[in-house]
Amino acid sequence: MMAAGLATLVSAQPVSAQDDVPDTRQLPPQAYNGYLEQHTVPLWEGDVPNAQGEGFRDVPTLTIYPPGQQPNGTAVIIAPGGAYQVLSDNIEGRQIANWFNTRGVVAFVLKYRLGPDYPMPVPLEDAQRAMRWVRAHAEEFSIDPDRVGMAGFSAGGHLAALAGTRFDQGEADADDPVERQRSQPDFLVLGYPALVMFSDPKSRIDYCQLMGIDECDQAWRDRYRPERQVNQDTPPTFIYQTTNDELVPPQGSVDFYTALVNAHVPAEMHLFGNGPHGSGLGMGDVALDSWTTLLDQWLRGRGLYQPMTPKDS
After folding, report:
1. Positive or negative, the Cα torsion across 60, 17, 33, 22?
2. Which of 13, 32, 31 is nearest to 23 (CA)?
């Protein structure tokens, strides 16, 4: 079985890893599908920082999935994987959003910039902007700005872990109200995260090799190794991966979990024995399907399904 994350390494599509959906690259950056309640917004109004053009690949967006019930105040930004080359936006995007929706969580699927034209730190800047955007629009979506998390899978898991370890509190005097918001996630959910992309130059998923970057010194690599950035302010984290993941070695998850524990950050990791990379919600596997049950329990235990308490005016 060719896992979604592995397939992205050879996919010819520039962004979406799907083969069964219409090509939407010609749609405007903001579109609304009333039938599916699908609403896509650009992260920046007007000029996009560091953009190489104005096409589909150049405009980072959030696609909003509201729950089919009263929102409970929690929101999650979802970063699909794809080796920073494409995005597995179905298995690791839409399906994940729908799962969170059934629990009253407002979900946002992030289309971040990627590929050789947009090397680090551009994807991280898009993730940070997404966190700020959701907080700036929290009231609009009945979201508690202190209950905004990030979930990521494969390379998206690496991006989410970076967002959780490299953040700021915003610029209080910024002209753009979005930039006044903090970029720190309040919780992290990492599915088979590709946390070794910057630590092992010999790996088949080494970031520098994938992007064709000839010069990658150790200091630059360390900047994008989340386990090197963990401290007591890193948000509570849930991690899931398999031991025999054929693409992403689980050692990256183990190292990140160890760093969290050493920093006294609440963390939970589930390392299953068998299962392919890119399994999304479990793909019907009798063991892997249970990971979302474990996540559900973890989210409940942290009070993230509780109705939002009105704040004093």
Report:
1. positive
2. 13
